[in-house]
Amino acid sequence: MSATASMDEFEALLNESLELATPDEGAVVKGTVLAIEAGQAIVDIGYKMEGRVDLKEFAKPGQDPEIEVGDTVEVYLERVENARGEAVISRDKARREEAWDRLEKAAEKEERVEGAIFGRVKGGFTVDLGGAVAFLPGSQVDVRPVRDAGPLMGIPQPFQILKMDRRRGNIVVSRRAILEESRAEQRAEIVGKLKEGDTVDGVVKNITEYGAFVDLGGVDGLLHVTDMAWRRVNHPSEILSIGETVKVQIVKINKETQRISLGMKQLQADPWENVEEKYPLESRHTGRVTNITDYGAFVELEPGVEGLVHVSEMSWTKKNVHPGKIVSTSQEVEVVVLEIDTAKRRVSLGLKQTQGNPWDNFAASHPAGTEVEGEVKNITEFGLFIGLEGDIDGMVHLSDIDWNRSGEEAIQDFRKGDMVKAVVTDVDVEKERISLSIKALEGDPFVDATTGVKRGAVVTVVVTAIEDGGIEVEYDGMKSFIRRSDLSRDRAEQRPERFSVGDKVDARVTNIDKNARRLGLSIKAREIAEEKEAVAQYGSSDSGASLGDILGAALKNKEE
Predict the structure, then answer these.
(1) For site-directed labelling of 145, which of 55, 234, 536, 560 has its Cα 20 to 30 A away?
(2) 358-437 maps to CATH 3.40.50.1240
(3) Which fold has domain 271-350?
(4) How buried is residue 364: exposed, middle or buried, by Cβ count under 10 Å (0-12/13-18/19+)?
(5) Which CATH architecture has domain 20-94?
(6) What is the Cα Rg of the chain in Å?
(7) What is the CATH number of domain 445-538?
(8) Assigned fold of 194-267
(9) Nearest to 415 by CA among 372, 375, 454, 444
């Protein structure tokens, strides 16, 4: 009975000791390398258990395995025994478990971890963090896009853990965060040594449309295009190239953002210091057109001194023309200085002033009465515009086209492009107007007809038309009209129909209106005047003779 109890107790104690001594599957255990054969290491993990591990599991990424017989190594026990009676062990999994414990502690403390980039995957790279594999996104490799990551592969370097998920086995790291931190420290140190106004050497790193970035030895500064030269610079590449060493001045340092503004022109003499002396008002200079806009053209008088020729100062005659149709870029032009504002660094220039006012020139060479010839440029409802020398126009008003016809009727004889002659009647320089007259080319028929004719004179006219209100007559080629009430002294004879076209009639001149070009005629006034003259010469009604006798005698005497 006691012997049986002793055997049971011994068996129980033996089983208990075996359970305590045998490691659990999934644990990391220590073992000794017994041999290396067929690319594998045979490892004794104790408890009469051995396992095999591929040699590659003992190698770091990109390196040969470092393992020798007798080395003590940690392995991960996956199964106590396989079909061959060997333990299934793994060095990779042991390293991974160890690495995860270490990385979790580093992530909690936000410490850097060391790893090596060993592969490329979609969107980035794989990194070995001493047994655990992490993902390095392409955007986190460097502060700037990396085209060739070859030089970075297999090199141990620090990384910052951005994200960890042990359950899913995901780790995301960043190399860029380490570089930015290091760069920030270096930048702060360099910026602290710089002062505004210092002159330093730098290397052009990058060129953009608005300027260039210059490396000052670990920190970049911006050299804006407006600070490169006193003259106009359309693009930084005109004067700089990548890799070029340049001397610059520290213009401004922002301590908060650590941004540095640089300048090159500040190291050169300011051309505006004596602009007023070199370019007095109304002086003439030759410059080069550097830029053309809708409102004018910029002309460079010298490097760094540029003036604007406003569109209104470009031409006397071309008022609504784009500046690009008058001048072209890089053209050499002569200009006149109109105004200088040194505070705003502005020079107002004039182009038309070098050519002389064409209206002044025309007035001097074409006084009133001068005959000119030009092309009909435009026809409007109020007259004709004639092109004249000096690229200016003169206008012939409707009333100045023809002496005898209305302007509306006479203007129908003209077409654009016709060459016509006219006489200058007036030049208004201030209003830039030239008045012309076509009808003045011929003498005024009214003046010709009335020369020597005085009010009260009797003239012979020819009837040209019969109307209800009177008759139309012509005197020396000039039309006139005698009203019904002026056709006779006798009211019964004031009938237009008693006249016929072609009849010659004597009439008395009652009015000569040169402004309105009208000749007033009256048959009635002539008859009354003749009656008075006869009475005065041959007697009066009081002498006993009748009016018929007097007029008869007068007429008889006149006929004789």
Answers:
(1) 234
(2) no
(3) OB fold (Dihydrolipoamide Acetyltransferase, E2P) (2.40.50)
(4) exposed
(5) Beta Barrel (2.40)
(6) 58
(7) 2.40.50.140
(8) OB fold (Dihydrolipoamide Acetyltransferase, E2P) (2.40.50)
(9) 375
Range scoring the smallest mean pLDDT among 81-90, 197-206, 337-346, 451-460: 81-90
Listed in sequence order, the residues at least 6 apart from 260 whose beta carbon sits closer than 8 Å to its beta carbon are 191, 194, 216, 219, 220, 221, 222, 250, 252, 253, 254
- Do residues 161 and 171 lie in contact, with contact meaning Cβ atoms separated by under 8 Å? yes
pLDDT tens digit string along 313-335? 888 877 788 999 889 998 999 99
- Identify the pLDDT of residue 544: 47
Q: Residue 369 burial by CB count (10 A; 0-12/13-18/19+): exposed, middle or buried?
A: exposed
Cβ burial of 460 (10 Å; 0-12, 13-18, 19+) is exposed
Provide the pLDDT confidence category of residue 159 given band limits of 50, 70 and 90.
very high
Of 296, 302, 300, nearest in space to 322 by CA: 296
Give the three-class secondary structure for 244. Answer: coil
- The domain spans of the chain are 20-94, 110-180, 194-267, 271-350, 358-437, 445-538
Cα torsion 141, 143, 149, 152 to 10°: value is -80
Domain 110-180 has CATH 2.40.50.140: yes
Is the Cβ–Cβ distance between 134 and 168 less than 8 Å?
A: no
- The whole-angstrom separation of Cα 375 and Cα 389 is 10
Task: State how far Cα 210 lies from the chain centre.
Answer: 16
Mean pLDDT along residues 207-219: 85
CA torsion, ordered 464, 466, 472, 475, to nearest 10 deg: 30
Phi-psi region of 500 (alpha: psi -120 to 50; beta: other; left: phi over 0): beta
Tokens linked to 133: 């594999």
Segment 55-107, tens digit of pLDDT: 777 766 666 677 777 877 777 677 777 666 677 776 667 777 777 888 888 88
Quickly state the pLDDT bin for 20 (edges 50, 70, 90): very low
Distances in Å between the Cα of 282 and the Cα atoms of 74, 260, 331 are 95, 43, 21
pLDDT confidence band for 158 (50 / 70 / 90): very high
Identify the pLDDT of residue 1: 46
Instruction: Classify residue 87 by its DSSP letter.
Output: B
Instruction: Render pLDDT for 502-539 as a digit per residue (tens, 0 to 9).
Output: 888 888 988 887 776 788 888 888 888 888 887 777 65
How far apart, in Å, are the Cα atoms of 70 and each of 2, 23, 57, 115?
Answer: 47, 21, 17, 28
Of the chain, the percentage scoring pLDDT greater than 90 comes to 8
Name residue, tokens 């003439």.
284
